[in-house]
Amino acid sequence: MVENRPFLTFLAHAILIVGVVVIAFPVYVTFVASTLTLEQIMSVPMPLWPGDQFVANYTQVLTAGSTKGSTAAVSTMLLNSTVMALGIALGKIAISIISAFAIVYFRFPFRMTFFWLIFITLMLPVEVRIIPTFKVIADLGMLNSYAGLTIPLIASATATFLFRQFFMTVPDELAEAARMDGAGPMRFFRDVLLPLSKTSIAALFVIQFIYGWNQYLWPLLITTDESMYTTVIGIKRMIVGSDAANEWNLIMATAMLAMLPPALVVLLMQKWFVKGLVETEK
Amino acid sequence: MEKRVVFRSAWLPYALVAPQLAITFVFFFWPASQALWFSFQLQDAFGMHTQFVGLQNFGNLFKDSNYLDSFRTTAVFSVLVAGIGIALSLLLAVMADRVVRGAFAYKTLLIWPYAVAAAVAGVLYAFMFAPSIGIVSYVLKGWGVSWNWAIDGTDAMILVVMAAVWNQISYNFLFFLAGLQSIPRSLIEAAAIDGAGPGRRFWTIIFPLLSPTAFFLLVVNVVYAFFGTFGIIDATTQGGPATSTQILVYKVYHDGVKAADLGGSSAQSVILMAIVIALTVVQFRYIERKVNY
C-alpha cells in the first residue's frame, strides 16, 4: 500500500465480497437442496434456507443410494473414490521419484531416450486417446477393477519433472559425502534424498489427490458395475432425465459428499496446495 | 544441467525407470499408435471387416460440416472461457493484492472451487439453471428473460462457459496473485512518488510485468477448455441442443463410444494430439523465454 485511498480500499473489499458470494452461491444452493424434501425443491422457487431433511437425505444416500439410475450406496462410491485418488497420488509419486532419481544420479545408455519417452506423455492426455486406451484395458481384463482405475493414470511426466528439477538443486557435496562414507545409491536415496524431498512430495500429493478424486472420463468408460462407481460417476448416473424426473435432494447430497474431501484437502493443506500448483506447472 | 557426482551400476538405473516406462508403453504409446493405425482404416458396421483407406478418414472429416462446426464451437468456447476467466480472476487478484485486512480470508474463500470436479460443477449449474425448477431460471423468468439451455444453443453455450469459468477461476487467481506479489514494491512506490495514480500504475507497470503470467494462463486455459471441460459438457448439455456445445473432445467421445465409428473417431484423436503437441510447444517456448527474462 503506497497511499491511503479509503474509497479504493472500500471498492476492493466490495468487489472481493461480491466475488466470494457469487463463487460460493452454487455450493450454497447445493447444500440447501440437500437438506430439503424432493417436493420442496419441485415447488418453484425452492426455499433458500436449509430444511430439516439433512439427516434423512445423507443417511439415505450413504446407506442405500438413490432409487433411480444408479442404486449403489454412496458410501461404496466414496470408498472407490478414495482408493482411486490415493492409488493415483501415491503411485505417481512412487514411480516418478525413482525414475527421476535414475535419470539424475546415473549415467547409462539410453538415459536421454528414456527421458524423452517420458516427456512425450505430457502431450497425450487421456481425452485424446480414449478408445484405443479403453481397448487395451479391456484386452488386459482390467475393466471394473481398482487396477484399471488407477494404473493407466499413474504415469506422469509432470511429477518426474518436478522431482528432476528438485534433485538438480540438491548439492553435489551430499552425494559425494555419501559415497565417501560408503553408502550405495539406494542408501543415499533413502537416507538423504527422500527426507529432503518431503515438501515436494507433500505438495505433489495434494495436487494428485484432487486430480485422482475428480477423474471423470476414465471411470465413466471403464466402470460398468455399480459397485465400482466413483462418487463423481455416481452423481452423473443418478441423473436420469429432464428436470422433474430426478431425485435432486439425493443428487445434491451426493454432490456435497463428492466435493467435501478435495475441498478439505485444499483448505487444510493450503500451503502445500499452492506450492504444488505453482511447481507442477513449471 | 548435469550432476557432477553420479553413482555407477549396470542394472539399477534400468530397474528404477522400468515401472514408469512399462506403464508409459502399455497405456500411452501402444494406444496412441493404435489410434494412428485405426485412423487409416475403415471398419464395417459389424466390426468384422477392416480395410486400409489411407487418408480417407481425414478427408471425410474435413468435408464433414459437423466436424468443421465442432471446430468453430471449440474456438468460441475456449476464447470465452479463457477471456472471461482471465479477466475476472485478474480483477479479483488485483483487489486481493490491494487489501491488507482479510487478505488471507479472501484467498481461502476464492481458491476452493479448484477442488470441485468438472462434472460436479456441471451438475451444480445444470441444477441452478434447470429450465423448470432452477432457482436462477426462476429469477430470470421474473425479470422477463426467457432462458432455456435445453432448447436454445446460445443459452447452452452460456451455461457451459459459466460453469467452466467458475471451475477454473481459482487456478487463474492463484497464479495472478503470486505474480502480483512478486512485483517489487519499490517500482510501485517510485511511480506513486512521481505522481502516477492507481489506474496509471496498473496499466504502465503492473500489467506489463504480469503479461508473462497472463500468457502462461492463456495457454493453460485454452488447454483446459479443449480437454478439461469434458465433464462439464457431459453432465449438462451432452453437446446439445443439436450440436451447439459439441466441442472436439466431446465429439471424439460421441463418435467413438456412442456412434462406434472407430476410424473417424481415431482420425479426430490424431488431429487432437497434433493440437495438444502444438500447444505444448508454445508453452515450452514461453518457459524458455521466462528463464532469460
Question: Could you walk me through the main structural features you see in this protein, from its secondary elements to its overall organization?
Answer:
The complex is a heterodimer of chains A (282) and B (293). The longest helix of chain A has 32 residues, at 74-105. Helix content of chain A is 70%, strand content 0%. Chain A has a domain at 65-233 and 263-280: MetI-like (MetI-like fold, Orthogonal Bundle), CATH 1.10.3720. Chain A is built from 15 helices and no strands. Chain A has helices at 6-33, 38-42, 54-63, 74-105, 111-120, 130-139, 146-150, 157-169, 172-180, 185-196, 198-213, 217-222, 231-238, 248-268, 270-280. With 282 residues, chain A is an all-alpha fold. Chain A is globular, with a radius of gyration of 24 Å. Chain B has helices spanning 12-38, 56-63, 65-98, 103-111, 118-128, 135-142, 153-181, 185-193, 198-228, 230-235, 248-258, 262-292; strands at residues 41-43, 50-52. Chain B has one domain (56-292): Orthogonal Bundle (MetI-like fold). Chain B has a two-stranded antiparallel sheet with strand order 1-2. In chain B, helix 3 (65-98) runs antiparallel to helix 9. Chain B is mainly alpha-helical and 293 residues long. Classes of the chains: A mainly alpha (282), B mainly alpha (293). Chains A and B meet through helix 1, helix 4, helix 5, helix 6 and helix 8 of A and helix 1, helix 3, helix 4, helix 5 and helix 6 of B.
